[in-house]
Structure prediction request, 120 residues.
Amino acid sequence: MGSETVLLVDDEERVLDVTREILEKTGYQVLTARSGREAVEVYEKNLPHIALVILDMIMPDMGGEATFRRLKDLHPEVKVLLSSSAWSWSRHWCAKTWAAAGRWRATAAPRPACSCPSRT
Prediction:
């Protein structure tokens, strides 16, 4: 069971709701943001309390990459879990970003066995 505060960032309401519910049921305090810009504002106001940021990489306005870089500017040791339904894009971005920095840890969720409709 967790007890830390997590900042959850996603532009999809359903993803926010389900993920927040899971995190809260396991003991975490959850702050949410629906855009990269809002995430930066929430992070700045709550920086000492946030243990982890779960960040969607594909969002309109200020996308995940720009948000990630801004959070790193605010606090270089920020812990961020990058999240994306676009698996091949996120794998490529993570490899490019962390390989260049010498810091590379990534885990891909297993692909579903069923044939799921793709997002367009």
